[in-house]
Amino acid sequence: MVNWVLRGAVLLWAVFFFMIGARGVIDPTSYTDTFGFTISGVAINTLRADLSSFFLVSAGAAALGALVPTWVRALLVPAALFGTALTGRLIGVAMGDPTNFGIIQGMIVEALSVLLLVGSWWVLSRPVAASAATDPAG
After folding, report:
1. Which of 43, 71, 75 is nearest to 59 (CA)?
2. 105 inside domain
3. Please, is 133 exposed, middle or buried when counting C-beta atoms within 10 Å of its C-beta (0-12, 13-18, 19+)?
4. Who is most buried in 1, 36, 41, 134, counting CB within 10 A?
5. For 73-131, how does the pLDDT look when each residue is reduced to its tens digit (9 = 90+)?
6. CA 43, CA 17: separation in Å to the nearest integer?
7. Contact 53/98 with Cβ under 8 angstroms?
8. Has residue 121 been placed in a domain?
9. How many C-beta atoms surround the C-beta of residue 17 within 10 A?
10. Is residue 138 in some structural domain?
11. CA distance linking residue 45 with residue 43, whole number of Å
């Protein structure tokens, strides 16, 4: 039962971030409202490519890890990406970068994402107990 709940939670997470990434490919200016920065000139192409790929790869790896039991380690890919982003934000805050509610919200989302993905990997990668293996609901 816990495995199905975790798989469902990770799939919902993946769908959410897939939508953010797909929207960014189609309309990179959507990131300006979501993340609170402005872009101009050729930077829009870099934003379309780099930020969208971050979300799309994260979503794809999370979905793969949730749907294919032998690929549960794929959950560590988005965990590493979001953990690296969180680390970068923490370094920025420590070095005096300006912060606002959006930065704090991003850090919370990144931390919760890492917890969800690493926790799901941990639980889903453990061998199924003998009693749970015979229980169809387990």
Report:
1. 75
2. yes
3. exposed
4. 36
5. 999 999 999 999 999 999 999 999 999 888 999 999 999 999 999 999 999 999 876 45
6. 22
7. no
8. yes
9. 23
10. no
11. 5
Q: Is 1 helix (H, G, I), strand (E, B) or coil?
A: coil
Q: How far apart, in whole angstroms, are the C-alpha atoms of residue 55 and residue 66?
A: 16
Q: Is the pLDDT of residue 134 over 90?
A: no
Record the tokens describing residue 14, joined without a space. Answer: 């993946």
Detail the DSSP E strand segments found in the chain. Answer: none
Q: What is the CA radius of gyration of the chain?
A: 17
C-alpha distance from residue 17 to each of 28, 41, 135 (Å)? 14, 26, 33
Identify the pLDDT of residue 104: 93
3-state secondary structure 15-51: HHHHHHHHHHHHCCCHHHHHHCCCCCCCHHHHHHHHH
Residue 136 lies in a domain: no
d(CA 82, CA 88): 10
Number of domains in the chain: 1
The contacts of residue 103 (CB under 8 Å, 6+ apart) are 89, 93, 97
Six token digits for residue 53: 């790929």
